[in-house]
């Protein structure tokens, strides 16, 4: 039995595993290999690692975890259950792994609106986070899709990076319209039905009235869909400091905090690693364990 099984090998999971490995805990990371930022060529806002490809950061992280005795296993966890004082995790290949504590860092999925051509550009010239992609498209003609009420606020933010911002959407509250106009954002009261690309580059959008508007980048508010099946199975709800309502189960990163950028997810994972180790230390120091020679 491992001290800890970490389910999810992104920034949060690897950071937790690194802290636990350095605390001389036996740690297994189960990684399905589907990070949220996989489509992106670079990640940003991570001090000392700004501009690094996401896959490179994870490769370095896996090597660091392994350097402290941590084990990385490729696979998908399909279920988790309590077994006595510990937990058992079933993998998609039929194998099971057990641990005294679980850390769930399974991230989330960005659900995009069903607009033709949008998914194909995702993570390149179509994005959701201005702090992650705004600098790369600064001073370019940018569009913001009003497929969600959050689109208006997103357009207000995007205006920080370009003077040429157009909001597309047939549904816009009057108070939001006033704010956008005050900020210098152009408003087009039509919905986008197709994203146009040429030579593998975004060139614009087609609207419901058949017209086309040239744009070189698009921002879209996505729907966050947490990969929280395992937490649900365990009846574990996130509380604070990475803890959940189920003793021994912890969670960090986008699975519980959809707005967390990579550096924030990594910090959450590190904090969880410390809390898990403290939890194990207190368990090992319990008087009843000494009485029974444990």
TrEMBL record:
Pfam short name (any one): Pyr_redox_2
Domain FAD/NAD(P)-binding: 2-269
Transmembrane segments: none
Keywords annotated in UniProt: Flavoprotein, Oxidoreductase
Highest rank taxon of the organism: Bacteria
Coiled coil: none
Catalyzed reactions: [thioredoxin]-dithiol + NADP(+) = [thioredoxin]-disulfide + NADPH + H(+)
Name listed for the protein in its UniProt record: NAD(P)/FAD-dependent oxidoreductase
